[in-house]
């Protein structure tokens, strides 16, 4: 089997994992290897490796790969990895870790390395624990990152589905206080309601209405925990005019009534 076929097969497998919802980030980390230095360790997770600057050789036991800006590498667990920075420049790179039962090793060009790296830097600056909106912003950035990773592989399919989902999630984050329905979501992206339901199940494993309710509940929880809002005020701020109805939904979703959070 020639090298070109191996690369194509590896990307096919990776893309299939992504479409099946199995390519879920465990975290992003930035690393620097000083010029001329080497480092060796046994890999524990699968990783997508994006070089930022400098050059290095990544040797996964007996398989070496050149790492430089404009490429991304895919590493797998249970391999002895040796990194060697080349030339007189420090080597900077960013890893995204995830769990996988597929042991893939390959390198591929990025269609737009500057945009990919810019997204990664934004992801590294995010702190999703600060508030709910930050969590959803992070989700949007990660979706954009995957869109760049796969943009030169199957661009139409990746762009269409990922961009539609990104637009829908952004629409909900802006309009959650309003009357958001399956039909209004479909009209917003000019798609059929059935396709919207399919995409939410495919990427989020949830119905659109349940995603909206969960989003509202999370924001209401933050409002109530702050101690600055009554239940009626929090309910109104997330789109429920009837506080009693909101309380029933809240208890059904959270397992306890919202008044438990009121100070």
UniProtKB/TrEMBL annotation:
List the InterPro entries hit by this protein, alphabetically.
Answer: Homeodomain-like_sf, HTH_AraC, HTH_AraC-typ_CS
Q: Which Pfam families match?
A: HTH_18
The protein's matches in Gene3D superfamilies, at most eight in alphabetical order, are given as: Homeodomain-like
Q: What name appears for this protein in its UniProt entry?
A: Helix-turn-helix transcriptional regulator
Q: Which part of the chain is the HTH araC/xylS-type domain? A: 166-263
Glycoprotein as a keyword of this entry, yes or no, is no
Alphabetized, the UniProt keywords read: DNA-binding, Transcription, Transcription regulation
> In its keyword annotation, does this UniProt entry include DNA-binding?
yes
Q: Name one GO molecular function term.
A: DNA-binding transcription factor activity
Coiled-coil regions listed: none
